[in-house]
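Good morning C.,

I know you're traveling, so I'll keep this short. The sequence:
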Amino acid sequence: MIGYVTVGTNDLARAAKFYDAIAAELDTPRMMEFDSFIAWGTANGPAGIAVTKPYDGQPATVGNGVMVAFEAKDKDQVDRLYAIALANGGTDEGAPGPRGEGFYAGYFRDPDGNKLNAFVMG
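The tokens, ready to paste straight into the viewer:
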């Protein structure tokens, strides 16, 4: 149902470094790039993610209650994505672990404060 998700940034170069590292672990390339916008994904593939400087020229802010989730292939990849996020300027929002029956996730924020997670079902 979701085609892609966009989050705001105030520092595109810093955001690119963060999301390039996450995307590399997920084997997802950059698919579009402009002066104020970068998107990662694959044509006809699953939903992608993009970072952008806000079109209205105002500072990017974090959406309270908004979170983007990256689907991992297994628990080890959840752990790696969480570690990659923290190693690339992200901050902890909940270390990887079980979150109820059949759901394993790690929570973190990108350098702009956008809340993300990596998860696997089963």
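Safe travels,
E.
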